[in-house]
Amino acid sequence: MINLTIDNTPFRVNEGTTVLEACRQAGINIPTLCYLEKIQKIGACRVCLVEIEGIKDLVASCVMPVSEEMKIHTNNRRVREARKVVVELLLSEHEGDCQVCDRNEDCELQNISHDLGITKLRYEGEKAQRYQDDSTIGLVRDSAKCISCRRCVTVCTEVQGISALFPQSRGFKTTIGPAFGQGLDTVTCVQCGQCAAVCPVGAISERDQIDEVWAALDNPELTVVVQTAPAIRAALGECFGMEPGTLVTGKMTTALRRMGFDAIFDTNFSADLTIMEEGTELLTRLKKALVDKEDVALPMFTSCSPGWIQFMEYYYPDMLKNLSTCKSPQQMMGAMVKTYYAQKLGKKPEEMFMVSVMPCTAKKFEAARAEMNASGAQDVDVVLTTRELGKMITQSGIDFLALEDSEMDAPLGLGSGAADIFANTGGVMEAALRTAYELVTGRELPFDNLHVTPVAGLEGIKEAAITIEGTVPEWSFLEGVTAKVAVVHTLGKARELVEKIRAGEAEYHFIEVMTCPGGCIGGGGQPRITTDAVREARIAAIYKEDEGKTLRKSHDNPAIATVYKEFLGAPLGPLSHELLHTKYKEKERI
Predict the structure, then answer these.
(1) For the residues 538-565, what does the mean pLDDT come to?
(2) Once rounded to an integer, what is the mean pLDDT over residues 455-470?
(3) Cα(310)–Cα(364) distance, rounded to whole angstroms?
(4) DSSP 8-class letter at 487
(5) Is the separation of the CB atoms in 32 and 20 below 8 Å?
(6) Is the pLDDT of residue 433 over 70?
(7) How far apart are CA 142 and CA 205, in angstroms?
(8) Is the model more confident about 180 or about 22?
(9) What is the DSSP letter of 230?
(10) Which spans in 18-107 are helix H?
(11) Which residues are identified as catalytic?
(12) Which domains does the chain have, with CATH numbers?
């Protein structure tokens, strides 16, 4: 432990702690713009300056380690004035357009300016040349708003391992973006949106599609249906000042109904559908490998995360056969709404308008893929992020906090607790095991409260092994088999795991991959900024939602049984194969 003094008050902190971390532990908020918890400490923005006795110049607290008997001043006149000058210089060259900016009142630079008491600009600097990049469907960039904090570079390179963004040129002419000043569509951007999630200003954000949804709602010739992903219910409340991890499922449903949607369905339903299809696919592959001795692509990877799919198309096309052929729950719901539900209403697919609310910017790209038109029309018309839905509710004049709870609609609004946990890293795996193990053995998964704890939590790569004993006759070939599974989140960790498999250093039967840190609850479209504490709060809320349900296994969902009986036939059957499955192909890496 290190003894130090912060603003004349003694504290003790662990050796190796930075001054910034020590001050935050002491309840002192030091502003930052370039700092990212556990990822980036570069001292580039200089907003976190503090004074340390015995050191002539002010120092960046995010990179300065504490030392014994250090005396730190965080709020004297010298520090306050220095921070103000730094921020004023940033503002002098920042083309903010604050009145109409997407980040107005959600901008870290704006908030810091307010907190520092900046009410006028003493400096008028040259503005950077503006370049607006709208080359991808998921993300848009505005170089004039960039403050060169490099957060996007760090998360894209160090967390996701993509390196689609990088600083170019020097000094005032420094720009952050793809090589040679090109658009995001010219590089291997998977549109995960983590850059938009960490950007402190409006330099990069999701493509706003709110007006498209309003236009559909105003069109009397369209039946407008909305689906909401499980991660939304644990994060949407943050848009209205609620604590992270506050469950707002009922309020969200009421808000959507007041906004005019004709039907409100739960992506949990199609997550349960995914488990039925994906679990059957895994068991079928195992049977072919163990009984028929066929050369089958194992391990099988989950295919719910569109950023992960693009990553494989770019970097590991030879392993595309290892991906489950199942579409994501979003796309399954779109196909079911424009076929099964449309038939119930006596409507044509083109008369239905399908809106998804997702925690993910890559879902915008996924919905527009050429493969996603099994209904004969684009299965999902528009994808909104959690942030966009929050804005739409505000635009509607709805007092979200005062809303009563209500239920989603039949027949596609019922989901199990297993579907809820799709939001978390490890959740898809746990949901699949709950069903697959019970189908094979006739017994519940032998874990406390059905939770496969070895694959839960925020560790990057997690593993579990389950020995199958006492099978039902149909699956007797699995008797004594030890099923090896793995869970990984972030593409950087996914690359690490895939490379181990290719080198023969790891062997599994089934692997869950989620693109974003923490899974969908940490998606690129969720309320900013998402720290580990926020992720953990959202994860806890999702598990609470699961545990509070009587229905906690996908195969027990009566609505799923009904849709197979009335429409699909059987998992992996001809119609489900046509509507719910797809294949992917290699993409050129530039």
Answers:
(1) 97
(2) 95
(3) 13
(4) E
(5) yes
(6) yes
(7) 9
(8) 22
(9) G
(10) 19-25, 77-92
(11) 278, 281, 304, 324, 363, 366, 371, 520
(12) 2-75 (3.10.20.740), 124-206 (3.30.70.20), 210-269+330-402 (3.40.50.1780), 276-326+418-532+542-580 (3.40.950.10)
